[in-house]
Design brief:
about 260 residues, alpha+beta, Jelly Rolls, Arc Repressor Mutant, subunit A, two-stranded parallel ribbon, about 20% strand
Length: about 260
């Protein structure tokens, strides 16, 4: 496991900002760092992974990554721009022990922008910068209390479940039946369903719906495709069913979702 600390001296360390192209700091393997991290995508789409769960992060969402939690990012589509803040895990505040994706308040976004306005990786340990950091942490605590999961895909450990997930990820754009799934797993669909739900906490077809929603959300962020085309590319033959599933997953319509990206 790679440990990243950016060469920061721990004594007197409070926080540092970093921004730019996410591709420059993406990694092929999981890594950890000894600081809490706030990662805001300002443009594009990335997948945030911790070895157990995959969470999409869009241009209007922010991630809180606790210190010493293994993770990595995968950039999707076009160039992904970001703003990030690393701060000492010893600073006051009760923060989650797992990665959280949330919508940051306008005040939080403004403070994060201010903390990234100077030279990168400078220690924010004195004067106005320290005051701004302290205020940001208070706002962050408040924003995290209102966080709710939008879309999370569990990573299977069971080999049969891995095969089925791989099949879904390759064939999501067409009709998938219970018989198709059973043939892939070499089990009855009843046996497969029980095995899948025991590990994944969702049914086979709920996972299929979630993966289709992931693909739809990526298309809405990275392409200019019409809503009808997005629905069909994601395996839907009914546009109304597509809109219903999308709103149930993201609490907004596909049109509103795309507008959120342009407003980020």
């Amino acid at each position: 496991m790679e440990i990243i600390d950016f060469g920061i001296r721990k004594k007197g360390f409070c926080g540092v900002g970093l921004k730019g192209s996410l591709e420059d700091f993406s990694s092929d393997t999981l890594h950890v760092h000894p600081f809490h991290q706030v990662l805001r995508i300002s443009h594009g789409v990335a997948l945030l992974e911790d070895g157990h769960m995959t969470r999409p992060q869009y241009g209007f969402l922010t991630a809180f990554i606790p210190a010493r939690v293994p993770h990595r990012t995968r950039v999707l589509g076009e160039l992904v721009e970001y703003q990030s803040l690393y701060f000492s895990a010893s600073l006051s505040g009760l923060f989650p022990k797992q990665i959280v994706i949330f919508r940051m308040s306008e005040l939080g976004r403004s403070l994060l922008h201010q903390l990234n306005s100077g030279e990168p990786l400078r220690n924010l340990n004195r004067g106005m910068e320290r005051d701004c950091l302290n205020l940001f942490i208070k706002v962050l605590e408040h924003d995290l209390r209102g966080a709710s999961a939008l879309l999370e895909l569990r990573t299977p450990a069971d080999e049969t479940n891995r095969k089925l997930c791989a099949y879904i990820e390759q064939q999501y754009h067409r009709k998938i039946t219970a018989a198709d799934c059973a043939a892939i797993a070499l089990l009855s669909f009843r046996q497969l369903s029980r095995r899948f739900r025991d590990e994944m906490d969702v049914t086979v077809f709920a996972y299929l719906r979630m993966f289709r929603m992931l693909k739809a959300s990526i298309l809405l962020n990275t392409a200019d495709a019409k809503m009808l085309d997005v629905a069909y590319q994601c395996g839907y033959t009914s546009v109304s069913s597509f809109f219903t599933d999308f709103k149930r997953t993201f609490s907004c319509s596909p049109v509103q979702f795309r507008r959120l990206q342009t407003m980020a």
